[in-house]
Amino acid sequence: MANLDLNDFSTNMTEGERQYSDKKLRIGVIGMGGIAGSHLDSYKKQPDVEIVAACDLIEGKSEKSLEKHGITGVKCFTDYKQMIDTVAMDAVSVCTYNRTHAECTIYALEHGLHVLLEKPMTVTLEEAVAIRKAEKKSGKIVSVGFQPRFDANMQMIKKIVQSGELGKIFYVQTGGGRRHGIPVSWSETFIEDDKAGLGALGDIGCYSIDMVMNALGNPKPLRVTGVATDYFGKTPEAYAEVGKPECAEKFSVDDFASAYIRLEGDIVLDFRISWYMHLDTTGDTIIMGTKGSLRIPSTECWNGTFNKPMTIYRDVAGRPVQTEIPLIHSPETPTLFDKKIRSFLDAIIEGKAAPVPTDQIIYNQAILDGISRSSKSGHEVEIEIPEI
Ligand SMILES: NC(=O)c1ccc[n+]([C@@H]2O[C@H](COP(=O)([O-])OP(=O)(O)OC[C@H]3O[C@@H](n4cnc5c(N)ncnc54)[C@H](O)[C@@H]3O)[C@@H](O)[C@H]2O)c1
After folding, report:
1. Which end of the chain is less congested by CB atoms within 10 angstroms, N or C?
2. pTM
3. Ligand 1 neighbourhood includes 206 CB (under 6 angstroms)
4. Residues 234-257: tens digit of each pLDDT
């Protein structure tokens, strides 16, 4: 099997082998809400990192979060441009809501900073293209925050597909969902179009798409027909368990999406994702090939985990057989989040490509963008990704 890029080039190193930077890397964080806390926790564990600046539109939010995480000596701002203009840094984590991912990332790149950008890459394909252009011009890296890529079981999916064991892949079904799971408990920015831009599609749909696109080697998406709906989010009942019925008034994104996507190499991707449904699961992920097929049990793949083993189905001497792939149990630390942070830092130190690069994730964004466009237009749409 060819040497696979499994996003783990340095995370498998032992402590003795690891190269830390001689000089501390100076890091800033833009957007100090829920996920920024996970960035802070992981950066804190790295001996060659100093968190030097933080920024949030909401006055006092950065200070409060830093105090909660026991981090001192950080300059705080409410304007990311001012932060970037005045503090010397090597890199920033962009942890803002989706609508501001592009502007913050592009400004950071234009000012010589590497960027660890939270998923989804952006809201529109146009914004993702603008980031790719700025990244290329800057010579800096942008790594997109898909931490499940660092999970050993997730990597096994790619190893199986790339081994050729399944033959030519022609059909993939993926997606997932939560029975009652519109995310409003810690922040309501996920349900507002002017902040999130995409609902279930951008929150969890992008993970399912990345799981299979990464395994397939990122074939180019060509055409898509998709539907995105909002039957549940606009009803107060959808928030009964969290006691926030007023969220129904704010809800302006999708809570369900499904799509049929044609990929390069005669592969079709059948996809569905849901934040709220009267159903236990939207089904397993299946990857069908001419020599065998892989079943990945319905998984909350956004956590980077699945609890039941995968199964390969194929024929041996004309008889159908099934092979269970035992689950790989990884130590609790480093966490997937730690690996995402460390691999980004290692790429900076070693002058390597981004561990989760934008030239791959732009296809993910093109699919999300295509589904939104198709849903609005009511018919199949072409996906055109400009050369960058
Ligand atoms: N990788 C993961 O596991 C994971 C998990 C949750 C969220 N996310 C992603 O992280 C991002 C943020 O999610 P969250 O849960 O932290 O949301 P959040 O609403 O809790 O926090 C976002 C923060 O960004 C701030 N912000 C927005 N635009 C800004 C700007 N221009 N300058 C400064 N601050 C700005 C907001 O004021 C808010 O405090 C989203 O894109 C989301 O998809 C990733």
Report:
1. N
2. 0.96
3. no
4. 999 999 999 999 999 999 999 999
Cβ–Cβ < 8 Å for 162, 138: no
Q: 165-221 pLDDT, tens per residue?
A: 999 999 999 999 999 999 999 889 999 999 999 999 999 999 999 999 999 999 999
Structure tokens at 282: 């939207």
Phi/psi for 174 (5° steps) reads -150, 175
Q: At a CB cut-off of 8 Å and minimum separation 6, what does 75 contact?
A: 52, 53, 54, 83, 86, 87
State the Cα–Cα distance between residues 255 and 365, nearest whole angstrom: 18
Question: Does ligand 1 lie within 6 Å of residue 368's CB atom?
Answer: no
Residue 149 has pLDDT above 80, yes or no: yes
Question: Domains, the chain, ranges and CATH?
Answer: 25-147+336-356 (3.40.50.720), 152-329+365-377 (3.30.360.10)
Q: How far is the CA of 350 from the centre of ligand 1 (A)?
A: 28
**Rounded CA separation 139/233 (Å):** 42
**Can you tell me the distance from the alpha carbon of 59 to that of 76, in angstroms, rounded to the nearest whole number?**
9
Phi, psi of 49 (to 5 degrees): -125, 140
Residue 77 to residue 60: CA distance in whole angstroms: 9
* Nearest-angstrom CA–CA distance, 198 and 253: 6
Q: How far away, in angstroms, is 35 Cα from ligand 1 center?
A: 6
pLDDT of residue 18: 67
**Other CB atoms within 10 A of residue 163 CB:** 11
Q: Which of 68, 77, 97 to mutate to test ligand 1, by most ligand atoms within 8 A of the CB atom? A: 97
In sequence order, what DSSP letters do the residues of 210-248 get, joined into one string?
Answer: HHHHHHHT-PPEEEEEEEEE-TTTTSGGGGTTTT-TTHH
348-372 pLDDT per residue, tens: 999 999 999 999 999 999 999 999 9
> Which residue has the least CA distance to atom 15 on ligand 1?
34
- Residues 112-118 have a mean pLDDT of 98
